Amino acid sequence: MVACIRSTGRNASVNSEGQEHCRPQCVFCHAADGAQYVPLHFDSTHVLSYMPSLRDHCACAACWASWELQNAGHAQNRRRVVTCPVCTRHIDVRRGYAGAELCNDCLTDVLATLPPPPKQVPGPSSTRY
Question: Which of 44, 59, 66, 87 could make a disulfide contact with 26, Cβ separation 3.0–4.6 Å?
């Protein structure tokens, strides 16, 4: 478990052994202001437990929203599928790992900044023009 890097106002977080490590950077814009989070990752239909190796799969809420919007246009079978740009597993950018880098309260605050989810893009029309 890591002390929340956003609520402490520090440039580093401290793990359970008392070791500091730098704030994770956004995989898109490289910001490291403490507002980055790792979205839930899935293996088939099951949520993967948080592992330190997922730490580098974090981004800002605005960057995740943009990534989600880009991926929404590629959805298949009427289900929006967003993949992680690092590992290509399915992710849910609207949920994150509370207690990983951000405490539950800070994660809730960061997730609240996400815009509404993109509307599903309809499939190709059978009508020809």
Answer: 59
